[in-house]
Amino acid sequence: MKEDRQRAELAGYRVLVGRTRLGASSIASQLRSYGAEVLEAPEVTVEELPDWMELDQVLRKTDRYQAMIFACAASVDVVIPRLRELGSECSMPIVAIGEQADGALHRLGVEAEVVTKGACRQELRACLSHLTDTDSLLFSSADGRPQLKQDLHTLGMRVRAVAAYRYLYHFVERIPCDLDLVIIPGSSAASVLLKSEWGPVLRGVPMVAMGESSARGARLYGAEMVVQAEQDTVDSIVTCAVEQLTRCKGMEEFAWKR
Fold it and tell me: Three-class SS of residue 166?
């Protein structure tokens, strides 16, 4: 009965979850479990870099660093084969940010010393405090992971971000209408969504943001109504979204409009 009530809690609501990375979205999955109609945008594809010059230079000098951090599975799929092709050795500790990165490492026969549950500050602090005052490589897309890099710097880590590939973002021609809520899981999602052709429509839709930088980015790009989740976690942003929608059920206006 409890599961049935949960599945019906957001029935009739339409939510857009911003995406800037590959893989399944835990946020979208949880919101669907509450009965919401969830759209995910934009579509994300991976493209090779125009050249390997910077990446190769870094991979030939990995002995200068104390850790290698993979922000996603796509970075693993590029860097590990390239490292082997160059004949370089990787004896330093490897960190996988999330299960997908760890899974990609396993497929290539590489064991991560540390696997985080995600990239929220609390998780990074719990898992990576032993890397304080070290020099690390962070592999991600050409867009980088600015918030992740900043959070690692906050832990006292000296991080060099290195592009391993680039993302391409695709929006369907039809802009979704009748949205009840937009989820902003990161500052890059705020930028990609609100600077797109969909931006003028989305700016007037209530938004829930994960973390201070996401909320700040949404406001910077013109969002009119933004609520920040209490914690920088998937569970927290889902809880915040459910609360914001259900507390206004039957009302003409959302709580944050009052």
Answer: strand
d(CA 28, CA 139): 25
Taking the C-alpha atoms of residue 66 and residue 101, their distance in angstroms, rounded to an integer, is 19
Residue 96 and residue 159 share a domain = yes
| Whether the Cβ atoms of residue 239 and residue 26 lie closer than 8 Å to each other | no
- Closest by CA to 49, choosing from 188, 167, 170, is 167
Tokens standing for residue 193:
């969504």
Q: Who's near 152: CB < 8 A, 6+ residues apart?
A: 69, 124, 128, 136, 138, 159
Residues 148 and 214 in one domain: no
Per DSSP bridges, beta strands 158-170 and 43-47 are: antiparallel
3-state helix, strand, coil split of the chain in percent (to 5) is 40, 20, 40
pLDDT digits (tens, 9 = 90+) for 58-93: 999 998 999 999 999 999 999 999 999 998 877 889
The 10s digit of each residue's pLDDT in 174-211 is: 888 899 999 999 888 999 999 999 999 999 999 999 98
Return the bridge partners of 2, or none: none
Look up the domain containing 8 and give its range.
2-42+171-257
- Three-state secondary structure call for residue 169: strand
Q: pTM (2 decimals)? A: 0.79
Helix (H) or strand (E) holding 218: helix 212-220
Beta bridge partners of 207: 182, 226
Indicate whether 29 and 61 sit together in one domain: no
